[in-house]
Amino acid sequence: MVNNHFFEGVDLHEIELSTGKRIRLPVRYFEWSSIMAHFPAPAGNLRRLLPSNRLKPALLAPGTGILTLVAMEYRRISDVAAYNELGIMIPVQYEPPVNLPSLPLLFPERHPRFGVYVHHLPVTTQEAYDFGVELWGYPKFLAEITFEDVDGARRCRLRADGQEVLTFQVAKRPTRPRPMDFYSYTVLDGQLLHTRIQTQGQYGTARFRGGASFTLGDHPIADELRALEVGDRAVEVYYSPSVQSLLHPAAQRLPM
After folding, report:
1. CA angle 60-65-66, nearest 5°?
2. What is the mean pLDDT of residues 163-169?
3. Can you give the CATH number for the domain in which 83 is found?
4. Looking at the 3D structure of the chain, how many domains does it have?
């Protein structure tokens, strides 16, 4: 699905990276697909990965947070060649007055400082690495990220440094067109950046039905994930075969 009106009226401005590459913001992603799943994990284990005490793991239940895996195939992008990406993330709130279980996850639009802290974000091209690190502080590194369809599911495999990191898959499901915004937290120049990712696409979602799985390899990141004691039954999954999006400049720069 392609919405020809999604990018109408977007105010673009061009900047030059330190590499000399010129790029227009917000970055327009014209066509991509993704799979995503939220898995339960002890909140105390997740908290150790967060860069600031101001960020609190969003709670599924008292003492239980979430680890999010999301894999994207960016097929057509403004100013940048196609690339693949896999995110290892933690849903968080910034300085919540009360960290109530479930509500930010169920009603993110009511919690303006809810988002995902991006812990690892491997990509497949140097160009994707350059602009993401310099402009947003995304924790990118170069890796092999491949996709395949298998047994009614979409599967992603991540390899880095000649080692297996993880294999992640989500069952395909019926989709419907809808807008959906996501917000990321990253660290750049000693501040937390809160960034909006605005999307419109075909989304198939399900809660508390499983439908996703992952296996870990022998890479140090796989060992790091094992130590988190992540549950193997997904609490929410997204299958998105066709999406468009805008990656905006950071809306907020918050104290660490």
Report:
1. 95
2. 98
3. 2.40.400.10
4. 1
Residue located via tokens 């491997």: 122
What type of residue is 228?
Answer: L
pLDDT in tens, 87-105: 999 999 999 887 778 777 7
How far the first Cα of the chain sits from its last, in Å, is 40
Q: Show the tokens assigned to 205.
A: 């979602």
> How far is 113 from 252, CA to CA, in rounded Å?
10
Q: Is residue 217 part of a domain?
A: yes
What are the structure tokens assigned to 91, written together? 């849903």
Beta-strand relationship, 212-216 and 22-25 = unpaired
Residue 2 in any domain: the answer is no
* Type and span of the H or E element at 55: strand 55-57
Instruction: Please state, in angstroms and rounded to a whole number, the distance separating the CA atoms of residues 81 and 83.
Output: 6
Q: How many helices (H) and strands (E) does the chain have?
A: 4, 15
pLDDT digits 0-9 by tens, 182-240: 999 999 999 999 999 999 999 999 988 889 999 999 999 999 999 999 999 999 999 99
Q: Residue 46: give the domain boundaries.
A: 40-251
Supply 82's token pair: 């196609």
> How much is the pLDDT for 256?
93
